TrEMBL record:
Keywords: Acyltransferase, Transferase. It comes from the Bacteria. This is 2-oxo acid dehydrogenase subunit E2. It comes from Azohydromonas lata. SUPFAM superfamilies: CoA-dependent acyltransferases. Coiled coil: none annotated. Its cofactor is (R)-lipoate. InterPro entries: 2-oxoacid_DH_actylTfrase (IPR001078), 2-oxoacid_DH_E2_comp (IPR050743), CAT-like_dom_sf (IPR023213). The lineage of its organism: Bacteria, Pseudomonadati, Pseudomonadota, Betaproteobacteria, Burkholderiales. Residues 13-228 form the 2-oxoacid dehydrogenase acyltransferase catalytic domain.
Length: 229
């Protein structure tokens, strides 16, 4: 091969290691009969809560609030907190939320265990620790195992909405977009409000559209009222 040809040859990234694991997992998730639905959420009450907590010296991210709300909603809607098994659907007794983290060369999903028993500030602190350890390659394999649902956020990239791929054997995953000021109607007045879009993808073998919609609606209500967060 001449030097000119070698210089222009495309680089081949082998599907092995982390990249290979992601490829296999995403292929499996794509094979499920998945359905997508989304809801716009007014984050005004959440931002007020964030400001209140910040005055006490604690940082509370929108993602941590979403994880907290999702964990509470999962406890009340166990059909979404489930795993597809060979020949059946396993409803998990505990709520373990995987949180997608961008790392060098791919994506890692460490698990926030018993997330429904922790406050939003606890989840925020734990998420920061897990993300830092994942990026440093310091988490043991167990840290990525046992998730019953996944939350993935692209809000920091300025994305308005997206439809993530299921993380099998889980039957649900939630995509979180950016928070941005939009015009909303309140009574007879149009006012600006901080809005985000939550996209729920679920496995239709395990859960039907109506119960999935009830789960997503409760999650949105928890955020809009900053209730129990």
């Amino acid at each position: 091969m001449s030097e000119a040809v070698a210089a222009t040859a495309p680089a081949l990234i082998p599907l092995k290691g982390l990249r290979g694991s992601i490829a296999r997992n995403m292929s499996a998730g794509w094979q499920a009969p998945r359905v997508a639905m989304a809801v716009d959420v007014d984050m005004t009450a959440c931002q007020a809560l964030q400001a209140c907590v910040a005055e006490q010296g604690t940082k509370l991210t929108p993602t941590a609030l979403v994880v907290r709300a999702a964990a509470l909603a999962l406890r009340r809607h166990p059909a979404m907190n489930a795993l597809m098994r060979e020949g059946g659907i396993e409803r998990a007794p505990d709520v373990h939320v995987g949180l997608a983290v961008a790392v060098d060369g791919g994506l890692a999903v460490p698990v926030l265990r018993e997330a429904d028993t922790k406050s939003a500030t606890q989840l925020a602190a734990e998420a920061r620790e897990l993300a830092a350890a994942a990026r440093a390659g310091q988490l043991p394999p167990r840290a990525y195992q046992g998730g019953t649902f996944t939350v993935t956020s692209l809000g920091m990239t300025g994305i308005d909405w997206f439809t993530p791929i299921l993380n099998p054997p889980q039957v649900g995953i939630l995509g979180v977009s950016r928070v941005i000021e939009r015009a909303v109607v309140r009574g007879a007045t149009v006012v600006p409000a901080p809005m985000t879009t939550l996209s729920l993808i679920f496995d239709h073998r395990a859960i039907d559209g109506h119960p999935a919609a009830l789960f997503l609606r409760e999650l949105a209500d928890l955020l809009e009222q900053a209730r129990e967060l």
